[in-house]
Amino acid sequence: MGIEWGRIIELWPEIQVAFYQTLIMIGISLGVALVIGLPLGILLFITDSGLFWENRPVNSVIGFVVNIVRSIPFIILLVALIPLTQLITGTTIGPVAASVSLSVAAIPFFARIVETALRDIDKGVIEAAIAVGATPWMIIKDVLLPEAKASLIQGITLTVISLIAYSAMAGVVGGGGIGDLAIRFGYYRYDNTIMIVTVVILIVLVQLIQQAGDFTAKKLDKR
Fold this sequence. Notes:
By secondary structure, this protein is mostly helical. Helix content is about 80%, strand content about 0%. The chain has a single domain (about 5-220), classed as Orthogonal Bundle (MetI-like fold), CATH 1.10.3720.10.
């Protein structure tokens, strides 16, 4: 199982397009996860028992929905959300269409990461903020998020890496990207060179993201 460099050169334009499609999928779904998953995770934390916005019914409902989505295998989620994808994007193929399922999978995943990061904060810091009359919004903005920023960066890193793996699966249903290239050429056409190249690209991408995330988190960690 060797690498044919001529084959790589021949398919280099397609490799570049596939890589660009993967970045589109990850970028869109990560953006949606941050915009929706971050406040959802905060809500899961502050509505829990003993917190300043304690609301068990709300916490239970949100937690239940989050757990349901997280328990569905991504490949099944891809198929189940085809009608929603068609409704939102007008198509069911391509990286933008695949981003719908990726976003739905990423939101609860990141929300739980946010909740876990906030639980690591010293409760004494929160109690001190409440004691001096800080409003819930002030506690969230000036205490929770600054205290948890290093953990949140690590959470974002983990989310991006998970999205890379999910985006590769999106190729199964015509989502495009590196996974689609690996399936079309590496699997269906038994092209070992393309299979190796796609795996190497994904490994390098994951390593770079992990190193960047670790470096940033260490810089922000006040401990």
